[in-house]
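Crash report, auto-generated. Payload:
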Amino acid sequence: MLILAFESSCDETAVSVVRDGREVLSDAIASQADLHAIYGGVVPEIASRKHVEAVALLADQALREAGVSREEIDAVAVTYGPGLIGALLVGVSFAKSVAFALGKPLIPVHHLRGHIAANYIAFPELEPPFLALCISGGNTMLVDVRGYTDMEIVGATRDDAAGECFDKIARVLGLPYPGGKPMDDLARGGDDRAYALPRSHVADSELDMSFSGLKTAVVNLVHNAAQKGEAIDRPGLAASVAAAVSDELVPRTIAAARQLGRSTVVAAGGVAANSRIRADLERACRENGLRLYLPPLRLCGDNAAMIGAQAYYESQCSPYADMELNAYANLPI
Ligand code: KG4
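Recovered output after restart:
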């Protein structure tokens, strides 16, 4: 089954052609990150306008690179939530028009299900059930993936997402947006014990997380140092932040896998590119006898190949969307 997939939930416009959920024939992406960097974060209206400009050209590119004609496509897939509503609406409207014009079925895909499915592309042998750690700019959650389309959130952040925490801290350190990668680079060679940063404890939940206390602690630390004219050990602070975020995520991931009796752990989302989190997950899974799948870096961030991958499995289990399909800023997994 050949699927033409669209992704436009944030600041990447992406179109991909995927065969049978696993084989990526093309993966065209236009990132707007440089544009939003001027403002220190994504400006929703600018994101929507850039999607409008880019989407048709990228669709053309994706088909050309895949060597596939419009008529050969079997179905059209699109991210319909969660994300920035104006940005999502561009992808949904365009995908609906393509499906309508070609007379092909339309498959709606949840953005985070897509991030998880990025692993099906990288690892042909991977199949549910497994425990997924989904860590992106807007979401942080532990998901019990019982089947390709049967999932339950078993733990989640109570406030900020892990990526948001990295991005906000990067901003006070004067690093460019999005700050996760620059923070990761800065942390290399830094002493992760340079600063004693808080670890959260969510009173009534073993698996829920919190990042706002960490973010506020670091923002205050940087501002206090500036007021007193004290220098910051920047690599040490970046390494200490990465250790604190990882300490929030990794032990809970192991605890969730144990509680659910899962023997496989999968990471997903932009923050899954973080070198400290990857190293800690590798060590913790090895020590606990768990199989770990870490997506290659190019599949961690937003892309449409992951949407095409998940769409294939959605098409096996769920009805196609009708022409009333809408976009949703918030959407349960
Ligand atoms: O999954 P993604 O591309 O978009 C969303 O769906 O949100 O994730 C973007 C997030 C941003 O917060 C970015 O700073 C973060 O992923 N990120 C990283 C790294 N690379 C990207 N965070 C930590 N370390 C990285 N190496």
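Post-recovery validation: Residues 234-260 form the longest helix (27 residues).
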